[in-house]
Amino acid sequence: MATSTRATSGGRSEVGIQCFVVEETGRVQLSLRRYCEQACPGPSPFSYHNVSTVIGEAPEKLTSEGYLESLDGTVDRSDPRWPSSCVCGYAFLEDDHWQVNQHTIYRRPETGDEWVDRELPPGAIRQASWLPESDAGPLGKLLLRLPAGGLDWSVYGPSTTDDGRLGPHWTITGQLPNLSASPSINAEGVWHGFLRDGVLDPA
């Protein structure tokens, strides 16, 4: 994760995060998931019984709407790679949920580094064709991974008001990855800062 140090007007130095573009590889990571809505007493990080096992990669297959095709039901339930129990010891039942999950794999072209979508580092900018047209801008439908909470910010999307209504859009200038946004970005309770010339600076 690239960073830069900037001096503030008060003489302090704060570390900013340099943004960069990632592109889809056309591959997905596959995992087998079992879960049950019953409360889990721990030590699972989830409040319910939930376990996934990564089983490899596969070519990406999309629907006509641009979404990943469901692969549920494509791996036989007798396959020993399916998780059989939760970390708390609960043994999954036949009627509990079976899912074949897919996570898009992205690559940073200039370094060759790859991540699945949920593990993208802060500063990663990617195209997100599934976003609504209200989130489209001159450079596409862009998501930017923020420095905390694993949250994505829709670069051209509308803001949200305190009462949950859609508010105004940000003013975006520059070219990828050196974008600037006005006003600041406030993911309330998670991260608040500025996007200036491709660098995410804390407020």
Task: Write structural notes for this entry.
By secondary structure, the protein is mainly β. 0% of the residues lie in helices and 48% in strands. It has strands at 3-7, 13-18, 20-21, 23-39, 48-59, 97-107, 114-116, 124-127, 142-145, 152-154, 158-160, 166-169, 171-175, 178-182, 185-187, 191-196, 199-202. A hairpin with a 6-residue loop joins strand 6 and strand 7 (114-116). The radius of gyration is 20 Å and the shape is globular.
The largest sheet is:
5 strands, antiparallel
Strand order of the largest sheet: 1-2-17-16-15
Gap between N and C termini, in Å? 19 Å
Number of domains: 2
What's the helix and strand layout?
Elements: E1 3-7, E2 13-18, E3 20-21, E4 23-39, E5 48-59, E6 97-107, E7 114-116, E8 124-127, E9 142-145, E10 152-154, E11 158-160, E12 166-169, E13 171-175, E14 178-182, E15 185-187, E16 191-196, E17 199-202
Compact overview of the structure:
The protein has no helices and 17 strands.
Which terms would index this structure?
disordered N terminus, mainly beta, 203 residues, 5-stranded antiparallel β-sheet, globular, single chain, 4-stranded mixed β-sheet, 2 domains
